[in-house]
Amino acid sequence: MASWIFLPPVAATLILLASAVGLVDHARLWINPTFLAPQIAGGLIMGVGFIIGGFCPGTSLVAASTLKLDGVAFVAGVAAGIFAFGESVSLFDPFFRATSYGRLTIPDWLGVPPGIALVGLIVMALAMFAAAEISEAYFGRGERGAALGLLPRSPAKIGAAAALLAAAIATAIIGQPTPEDRWRSMGEAGEGAVASRAIYVDPAEVVDLKRDLSLLVNVLDVRGEADFNRFHLEDARRIDLDDARGPDLVRELAGAGENAITFLVSNDERDATEAYRILKAQNVHNIYVIEGGINNWLDRYPPPACVARRRAGKPAAGELAWIFAYSLGSGLAAAHPDVARADPAPACARADAGTAAGSEAGHGAGIAKATYTRKVKIQKKVAAKGGCG
User: Fold this and answer.
1) How far apart are CA 222 and CA 275, in angstroms?
2) What is the pLDDT of residues 209-227, one digit of tens each?
3) Which of the residues 64, 198, 269, 278 could staple to 75 if both were Cys, CB 3.0 to 4.6 A apart?
4) Does the pTM of the predicted model rise above 0.90?
5) Which residues pair with 289 in a beta bridge?
6) What domains are defined for the chain?
7) Do 205 and 374 meet the contact criterion of CB atoms below 8 Å apart?
8) What own/partner pairs with CB < 8 Å and gap ≥ 24 does 182-187 have?
9) Are strands 216-221 and 308-310 parallel, antiparallel or unpaired?
C-alpha cells in the first residue's frame, strides 16, 4: 500500500499548525543541516538499496523480528553499511562536508510563506498517492480502462485526504508567528535579560574579546548607510532590521561555530536592542548589544578632534552624537583599539594618533585601560539530532 506517502505531509501539517496557533515554536525545532551534494549521493545510494532489498529500515526490522530471512539479511546489510561508512568517512571528509546550506527548509528555498509551501506539499502528496493507487491497480491487480479511477475507492481515504488539505489551507490562512510574536511568547525569559541589562556589553569587553584569537567576534551594525560610512567598527557589517527578520542571516548566525560571538550596535541602544529581540526570538545564541552604542564607543575611544567632535546637548533617540568632518569608515584607531596599525586617515588624525599616550592599544585614544563587569557567557549549542527511521 502507498499509505506511507501520507506520513511526512501529516507530520508537517501538524507541526506547522501547532506553530501557527502558538503551541510550539517551529524556529526552535531541530532540522538536520543541508549538505546538498553528499545528501543527494546518499539518497541515491539508499534509494537503490531500498528498491533492491524491498524494505526500508523500519519494515526490515519488523520482517527480521518475525525471522524472515530477507528481513534479517537486509538488517545485516544495514549494520554492515553503517560500520563501513563510519570507518571510511574520513577518506572523503571534504565531500562529506561540501555544499553546506545550514538549516534550509523548502519555504526558505522557494522564498514563500511556510503555509503556502505546505499546501503545495499536500497537493503533491495527494497526486503521488493517487498515482501509487493507480499503479497498484494496473500492475498489481491487472485492472484496465474504466476500472481505473483517479480517486480512491475508500470513502475513509477521501475524507482523510480532504481533512489533511483543509488543515493545510487553514495553516496557510492563520500564518506563522512573527519574530515579534515569538519574543512576546518568551515573556520574562526574554525581556528580563533586557531589563536587567545583562545583554549590554561594555566596549572595553568587546575590545578584549576581539584580542582573543580563540574567539570569532562579529559586529553587526544596525544603522543607516550614511552613519555607517562616517564611522564604523573594524570588520563590522551593516544590516537592516529587515535583514534580522530574514532567513539568510538567521541561518548564518545559527550555523556559526560555538566560538562565535555576535555584537549588535547602533548609534545608541535602540535599534540594536530591537535587532537583538528579533534574532533572539529566532533562536540565535551568543548575541549581545554594545552598551551605549557607537556614541558610547566614541566616548570611550574618542577620535582626533580634527576629525570629529561631540554635539552639544543630548542627541535625539537613534542619532549619532558625533559630527564628523570626514567619512572615514573604519579608518581610525578608534575603530580597532584592539590592534595597533597605521590607518589611511587625514594627516591631522595621524599626527594626533602618533602623539597620544597611555591608550589601551598604545595608539589613538589616549585613555587608561577601562574596568568593566564581564557579561559575555558563551552558550554551548545543544547537540540535538534528528532524522528518519
Assistant:
1) 8
2) 999 999 999 999 999 999 9
3) 64
4) no
5) 200, 264
6) 188-355 (3.40.250.10)
7) yes
8) 182/25, 182/27, 182/281, 182/282, 183/277, 183/278, 183/280, 183/281, 185/22, 185/25, 186/280, 186/281
9) unpaired
